Amino acid sequence: MMQRMTTSPRTRLLLATITTTALLAGCNAGAGSDPVSTGSGTQGADGGTATDDGAGSTGTAAPGGSDETVRVGLVAEPASLDFTTTDGAAIPQLLLDNVYETLVTVDADSGEIVSALAEEWEVSEDRLTYTFTLKDGVTFSDGSEFTAEDAVFSLERVKSDAWTISLKAQLDVVDTVEAPDDGTVVITLSQPSNRFLYALTTRVGAMFDTEGVDDLANTPVGTGPYLFTDWQRGSRITLERNEDYHGDVPYFSDVEMHYFRDANALNNAMLTDAIDVVSTVQAPESLVEFEGGDYQIIEGTTNGEVVLSMNQTEGMPLADPLVRQAVRHAIDHQALMDTCWAGRGTLIGSMAPPTDPWYEDRTGDYPFDPERAQSLLAEAGAEGTALRLRIPTLPYAVSCGTVVESMLEEAGFDVTVDELEFPSAWLETVFTSKDFDMSIVAHVEPRDMASVFGNPDYYTTYGTEEIQALLEEADTGTEEEQVSKMQEAAALISEDAAADFLFLLPNLMVADPDITGLPENAIKESFDLSSLARG
């Protein structure tokens, strides 16, 4: 028996708006996705707060009609336009939902999974078979029709060698993908999976043209409301309205994404009317410059866990759990957040933000206790341990890195801070080669606990058999079991000191007062540019 649905009830994943728990200042970060995948990108990996409509926005875009260009300021330019082979948040932030679309997506207001390129879907009672009915009249930017053949091609391609990023593991659960006709796609899973449908809303669910994947790094071909037109590297990327879009045509005819390496330059661009929107404020203490009525300030929450990763590879200093525990006790998280991010953010204590159904406050697991940190170091015979803190040249990482250095040295560590150019040098040195002891990067992809801490080969180097078993049970069990097992997993990750969780980034945007459609919360991979308008 099949259950028909257009907003699958069993997958109302509770991406609820929690504006009362995490307000203020946003930043660019990156990485991860969801239970029992093997890895993820990081803003680390590419930059860009994986911004989304989140749960709520400041208005709804009027359909089409304007010849205006809207200019959006960001930090951390993509290294490529190909998110199938390049990790990081900046690429899906730009392209997902704007150039590429998915079969299903997350509703901006309700947080439910809703139809996108599939107008409806059915799920079998055993949760193994998903049947999607595709929308009619959808075309790619090259003029070809979107059919079930393209969907089969796209999903099978994720499981092939063509995709190289670790997030592809989210579709390992897929057994077969079939197209009984041009308008129907049938996906069969090897086992029930709570995360599968949600994964289809992320980059691994992006639909590609069978003839449009020859140059993904430079020429994306999608079905979305915008078309990629130009990339002036080191400066800006331009998208143009898709006049043949199958849905509501966007208000703005063009979107220019302007990239800045310096937080002050980003602010100055806004103050001098060189841009219309600051997508993620990189210097929260500078907000006073925008107060007083000339600008609107959007405050909300994100998925961006700022993680102090610890390389636990055998033979490394932080392979010793006592030394990792000492690190966690040595950090005063409130003081750190107050110092490096103007007190704007939320302390969480583990790898789950308050917008996840399995969130629990774990800030009490390792309270600030420098004497306990020194005692643990002595017990491990590791007084004066030298640590290389290798951080990306991103404002939050640079700002917080000096604070972490000071706190760890007070506890008895010998810390050297290296700033690595982002994305290229950081990706190569830390993310790929694992040539570091600690690093700081914000993991912003949604529901990324398993991606970041479920695979020992990922750069965080944590993924015990126990944690993998918990994540597997969370994925295959009932909804109630998913929540309880994910809570157990978050507790284990925290208690094992798999990393330290500095704070959760806030979503903080500044814009012209008449710009509407800005996301209050940034809890998805994409920044839905089609929602923007001028009111």
From TrEMBL:
<feature type="region of interest" description="Disordered">
    <location>
        <begin position="31"/>
        <end position="68"/>
    </location>
</feature>
<dbReference type="InterPro" id="IPR000914">
    <property type="entry name" value="SBP_5_dom"/>
</dbReference>
<dbReference type="GO" id="GO:1904680">
    <property type="term" value="F:peptide transmembrane transporter activity"/>
</dbReference>
<dbReference type="GO" id="GO:0030313">
    <property type="term" value="C:cell envelope"/>
</dbReference>
<feature type="domain" description="Solute-binding protein family 5">
    <location>
        <begin position="112"/>
        <end position="445"/>
    </location>
</feature>
<dbReference type="GO" id="GO:0042597">
    <property type="term" value="C:periplasmic space"/>
</dbReference>
<protein>
    <submittedName>
        <fullName>Peptide/nickel transport system substrate-binding protein</fullName>
    </submittedName>
</protein>
<keyword id="KW-0813">Transport</keyword>
<dbReference type="InterPro" id="IPR030678">
    <property type="entry name" value="Peptide/Ni-bd"/>
</dbReference>
<dbReference type="GO" id="GO:0043190">
    <property type="term" value="C:ATP-binding cassette (ABC) transporter complex"/>
</dbReference>
<dbReference type="GO" id="GO:0015833">
    <property type="term" value="P:peptide transport"/>
</dbReference>
<keyword id="KW-0732">Signal</keyword>
<feature type="signal peptide">
    <location>
        <begin position="1"/>
        <end position="31"/>
    </location>
</feature>
<feature type="compositionally biased region" description="Low complexity">
    <location>
        <begin position="48"/>
        <end position="67"/>
    </location>
</feature>
<comment type="similarity">
    <text>Belongs to the bacterial solute-binding protein 5 family.</text>
</comment>
<dbReference type="InterPro" id="IPR039424">
    <property type="entry name" value="SBP_5"/>
</dbReference>
<dbReference type="Pfam" id="PF00496">
    <property type="entry name" value="SBP_bac_5"/>
</dbReference>
